[in-house]
Amino acid sequence: MRSVIAAIAGVFGALLVANMLGVASAEAPTGSPLRTVSVGGVAKVPIAQNADAATATAAYRQGMAAAVTDGESKAAFLANKAGATLGVVQSLTEGGGYIGCTGGAESEYVQYQGEQPDFPAPAGGGGPVRLSAGASPPPPAPEIRRPSKKRRKHRTPRAKKAAAAGCTLTAQVSLVYTMS
Fold first, then answer.
1. In the chain, which ranges are E strands?
2. Burial of residue 51 (number of CB atoms within 10 Å: 0-12, 13-18, 19+)
């Protein structure tokens, strides 16, 4: 009787070990890992200071298309440097964008006055996107007055020509390509 119980336990143990090995071999990777290259594409396109929503969205999509082209160019360059050829896109992620404007009397930061394009919501789902056209201009440095030794002649200030505001929309994408 002891030999029968020992034989059953041995068979059970052998089946258990064979089952574990079968699962491990099914989970093991087959072949070589896929070689990839990850890049970010960036593009800038002009946009009118007071663009409507349709015009802003069209500019953003034009920027995304140009950003994909920029990313593909970067990926091809890197694959070439690695001695490989660029394959197909494995993933493509919209990275968002922003609008920056310059102009005005002193060619400094100017607030964008138009409608916002369809920029994506933040990944955290924290509500609407707060779109800023860039950092606010820093406050002017305090003026330091030093006593002058000589009296200077007073010059009449000349008016500066106001530069027209120019706005640029920047679009970003992330791409992952295969390499062979």
1. 36-47, 86-104, 108-109, 163-179
2. buried
Token digits for 9?
């336990």
Only one residue has tokens 């160019």, namely 73
Overall pTM > 0.70: no
Secondary structure class of 40 (helix, strand, coil): strand
Q: Which domains does the chain have, with CATH numbers?
A: 32-120+162-180 (3.30.110.170)
pLDDT at 121: 76
Q: How far, CA to CA in Å, does 156 sit from each of 151, 153, 163?
A: 16, 10, 22
d(CA 53, CA 61) in angstroms, rounded, equals 12
Q: For 14-23, 58-67, 87-96, which range has the lowest pLDDT when averaged over its residues?
A: 14-23
Residues 93-120 have pLDDT tens digits of 999 999 999 886 666 888 899 999 999 8
